[in-house]
Specification:
With about 350 residues, the chain is of the alpha/beta class. It has a 7-stranded parallel sheet, sandwiched between helices. A 5-stranded parallel sheet has the order 9-8-10-11-12, with helices on both faces. Strand 6, helix 7 (about 150) and strand 7 (about 160) form a beta-alpha-beta unit. It is elongated, with a radius of gyration of 21 Å. The protein contains 17 helices and 12 strands. The protein has 2 domains: about 5-165 and about 335-345, Rossmann fold (3-Layer(aba) Sandwich); about 170-330, 3-Layer(aba) Sandwich (Rossmann fold), CATH 3.40.50.2000.
């Protein structure tokens, strides 16, 4: 490829830092592509990877000019959050255009060529997914979302795209570390809700309380942690083998659960039976995801799954833990997600 493909990633403040992490991963692992994350609000959490252009913090006209130049000449534009029913209008796009003094979207190469991708995830998409699926199919080149395995009509141009996580090498366990730490970590169950209501943390806590005598007999300690930095959360995950992600109607494996998998964590979360087949379809190695499925709203199933997993012997726990780490490396690591991201971009709309 003679010229690098430019990819602009636009957001309000970038939920879970996914777009900034994609930018980092693409620039690090793909020599034929370059990306920039452009946001008009600083992130509310202290993530190690920052926005390439945080427009709320920039007063230097030269830097603003660089951000505008990259966006105008981008071959592809991906934007997240908000789509309104009127064609090709978005609160995110309008805000960024205003800051960068872009009066007409057709000033941007990607808009002239209709190379615009919409990224949706989280509760915003889940609450309005039918409308957004329809809008994306009519107005945009492609819809990306990690939530598509649950909510999408799975059209030819929809893509289940796994989020990229930026983790320092020290935060990703080696196989030897998984083996070495198992005997100590198996006595810890962790839950780290950023939003207790969405995760149904109260129900999770109730189930843990019901199991308290059995947990105490085994010396297992449950921790619920929130309100601290992402790095502090990562450090705590290294000490706890079992991780409960969420227990709700939409369910699914979230960013926090994926982070736990990078250490060989054994993740429990509510997911529907059909999800496994879709994960097999879109994973790089076509293997089942080693996550403990819990059927919402069956609280007894949640308790039974917790009880079953804490009752497994070390040999079986190690087998699951190693599979969890391997699945992370194959599907969620920066290298894996950057290749998948660009590979899906180059597949023209059908």
């Amino acid at each position: 490829m003679d010229k690098k493909v430019r990819i602009a990633l636009l957001s309000r403040f970038d939920y879970a830092n996914v777009l900034s992490n994609w930018s980092y991963a693409i620039n690090k692992h793909l020599p034929d592509a370059e990306a920039r994350s452009i946001s008009f609000k600083p992130h509310i959490f202290n993530y190690p990877i920052k926005h390439d252009y945080d427009l709320a913090k920039i007063t230097d006209k030269f830097i603003l000019g660089k951000a505008k130049d990259f966006l105008i000449n981008a071959d592809y534009v991906l934007f997240s959050e908000e789509i309104y029913p009127t064609a090709k209008k978005s609160g995110v796009l309008n805000s960024i255009f205003k800051i960068l003094s872009i009066k007409n979207p057709n000033e941007i190469k990607a808009f002239r060529n209709n190379k615009i991708i919409v990224f949706h995830s989280g509760s915003t998409y889940r609450d309005s997914y039918e409308k957004l699926n329809d809008l994306c199919s009519r107005y945009w080149m492609r819809l990306y979302s990690p939530d598509l395995y649950r909510l999408s009509p799975m059209g030819k141009n929809d893509r289940v795209i796994f989020p990229s996580l930026h983790l320092d090498e020290a935060d990703i366990f080696s196989e030897a570390e998984v083996i070495k730490t198992l005997s100590a970590r198996k006595f810890g169950i962790l839950h780290t809700p950023s939003n207790k209501k969405h995760k149904n943390s109260n129900i999770i806590s109730k189930c843990i309380n019901d199991l308290a005598p059995k947990l105490q007999d085994k010396g297992i300690i449950y921790k619920e942690v929130s309100g601290i930095s992402n790095q502090e959360i990562l450090d705590i995950k290294k000490d706890n083998l079992f991780f409960i992600d969420q227990f709700n109607y939409w369910g699914g494996l979230g960013v926090s659960g994926i982070e736990s998998m990078s250490t060989g964590g054994i993740v429990l979360c509510s997911m529907q039976n059909t999800h496994q087949n879709v994960f097999i379809k879109f994973s790089s190695n076509k293997k089942p995801i080693p996550v403990a499925y819990v059927l919402y709203p069956d609280q007894n199933d949640l308790k039974e799954k917790i009880e079953r997993y804490i009752g497994l012997g070390d040999e079986k726990l190690l087998e699951i833990s190693l599979k969890s780490r391997a699945y992370y490396l194959d599907n969620f690591s920066p290298k894996a997600t950057s290749y998948a991201f660009v590979r899906n971009i180059f597949q023209e709309k059908e």
